[in-house]
Structures are given as C-alpha cells and as structure tokens.
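tokens incoming
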C-alpha cells in the first residue's frame, strides 16, 4: 500500500488516539423507576422515556484493567508513511460523582476525611451548581435544555440547584508527579475501599455533574521508533461524563469515519475490528468530551484545519466544564501552562 494514500487520509493521529482510548461498556436497559438505589431523579433524565440505557460503573472500571496493566495501544501514522503502535498508561487524574442524598450519606465519614479531595472553598458546591451548564457539544442534553445557563446570568431560585446537582459522593484530584502515581485500575480499587458504591452504582444513579479525567502517558511503541521520539512523547488528559443524562449527546467524534484508515493502518483491525462486528447497541461508548495535551507537536498529531478545530473545541469544552463547576484541576493547570493551544 502506498504511503501517499495514507497521508491523504483526513483522520489525524490525535483522532486515532481519542478513538483508541474511548471505553466501550456493556449496556443495560432499566425502567426509569428502577436503579441500584431506587431513587432516580427525574431532573437528571428525559421525562419522555419509560426506560433508559445505562451502564454499571464497575464495568467502566473493568475497561481500564488491561490498559492499566499493558497500556492502551494507539495506531500512529509517521510522516514517512510507516506505522507503529504507541502505548499509553492511564492514570485517574480527577473524578467527581454526585448522587442521591441516601448514597452520599452512606459513605464512611472518617475514611472520607482521609481521602485526597479537591481544594474547594466552603461554597464551591453551591456556586458550581448555579453556573452548571452543558458545553460538551452543540447539542445539549435534552434533560438540561431548560437550564442553559452562562456564568453571567442570575439564575438564583430559578431551578432547584441541590436536586439538579445532587449530593457529592466522591471527589479526587491527583497532584503527585506521574512517576509516583499508580495506574487507573489500582487507584479505583483504592478509592472503593472508602467509597464502596463505586462498585455498585450505575450511570442512571448519578447526576449530570458527575465526570472523570484520565491522564495518559506514553510508555513504549512497537516497533520502537527513535526518529519520532519527540513527537511520541505527547501526553493527554481526556474528560468523560459518567451520567446517563448525556448518553444521547452527539460528540465531535461520532462522525469520524475510520473505514479508509483501516486500509492504511493494519493495527486498527485489532482495535476496531471487534467493534465493527459486534452489535453496537450492546455497548455504550464514553467518548471524551474534553481534551488537554502536553508536548503535542501539532503537525504530527493534528495537521489539517478540521483536526485542529476539533482539538481546540475539546480543550475549550474541558476548560468551560471546570470553570462552571468551580474545579481547580491540577493536571489541567499543569498542561495548560506548559502547552497552551
């Protein structure tokens, strides 16, 4: 196959990375009246549906087991037309889970105090909920269409902020250097000791404000390619929502067609071949709604105008989400100061 035909493909290396690290989770169908804790908040989900497609958080964590042990493989197209697979190890960078009052009240207070938490001020939860809005895409969640807010509008008393936001069950912000962190799966196991509902909650049980960020650091490539060592040193932060509320929201990568790319990069067969053959309705893909990068060389990772626009939009979405929730995300600040877009 000619390298020219591959180089003409519109899919960028950044696209390939994001598609490769998108978790595909087994889907479950539940009546809206039922959930793990039997307290589905009608403000979190569309009222017009009798059932909802959801996933168990434990199944999401299971998606990261192999990646945490061996790394997530991403097909990379080099400038000379050759290909390789770059592997990234995932770390839990940050997470917030808002749930019903009964779930939040069930956590162990003593252990929760010992857990690492965000550096919020005493009013952060309420101020964050007042400003909360969906900025993940042009198509907002139907559940929140009626409360499309911005930071300058006065919405006090216009909607029940506590019911909409939920009650904070877990918040974690990683501040250790990468060399001192434990992989994603190990960190979740550690957090579950003090927050056992991490293993029993479903996406339908948690608020639209629930999210997580995953830090991806390169570990090795096959075959080893020292020529592109500088370009392959890029690190990424991906942002994912955890609630069923945004499941129907369109993401910027839903329309990315990888059909032509498969013919150029054989490694894609191992990553996407199974997805193409299986029933897509049986899985829920948690595509990143936001992205930040560090050491990313644009010509190598994202060379076309449309690719650059996607990357820029994803960065702005992450920035907006954090600001509206009043979150001081350590890794995002680090990446932004050292690799501004």
């Amino acid at each position: 196959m000619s390298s020219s035909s591959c180089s003409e493909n519109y899919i960028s290396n950044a696209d390939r990375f994001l598609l490769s690290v998108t978790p595909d989770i087994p889907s479950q169908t539940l009546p809206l009246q039922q959930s793990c804790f039997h307290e589905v908040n009608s403000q979190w989900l569309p009222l017009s549906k009798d059932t909802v497609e959801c996933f168990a958080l434990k199944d999401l964590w299971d998606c990261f087991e192999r990646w945490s042990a061996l790394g997530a493989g991403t097909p990379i197209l080099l400038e000379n037309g050759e290909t390789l697979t770059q592997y990234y190890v995932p770390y839990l960078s940050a997470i917030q889970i808002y749930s019903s009052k009964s779930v939040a009240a069930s956590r162990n207070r003593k252990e929760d105090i010992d857990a690492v938490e965000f550096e919020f001020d005493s009013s952060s939860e309420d101020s964050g909920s007042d400003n909360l809005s969906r900025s993940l895409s042009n198509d907002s969640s139907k559940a929140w269409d009626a409360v499309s807010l911005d930071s300058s509008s006065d919405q006090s008393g216009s909607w029940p902020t506590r019911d909409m936001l939920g009650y904070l069950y877990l918040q974690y912000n990683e501040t250790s250097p990468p060399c001192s962190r434990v992989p994603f799966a190990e960190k979740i196991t550690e957090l579950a000791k003090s927050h056992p509902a991490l293993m029993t909650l479903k996406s339908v049980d948690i608020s639209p404000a629930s999210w997580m960020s995953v830090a991806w650091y390169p570990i090795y490539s096959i075959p080893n390619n020292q020529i592109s060592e500088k370009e392959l040193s890029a690190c990424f932060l991906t942002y994912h929502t955890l609630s069923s509320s945004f499941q129907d929201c369109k993401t910027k990568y839903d329309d990315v067609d990888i059909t032509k790319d498969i013919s150029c990069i054989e490694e894609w067969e191992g990553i996407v071949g199974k997805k193409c053959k299986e029933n897509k309705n049986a899985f829920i893909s948690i595509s990143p709604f936001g992205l930040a990068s560090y050491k990313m060389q644009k010509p190598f990772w994202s060379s076309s105008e449309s690719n650059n626009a996607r990357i820029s939009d994803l960065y702005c979405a992450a920035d907006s989400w954090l600001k509206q929730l009043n979150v001081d995300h350590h890794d995002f600040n680090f990446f932004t100061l050292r690799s501004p877009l």
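note: Residues 110-160 have pLDDT under 50 and may be disordered.
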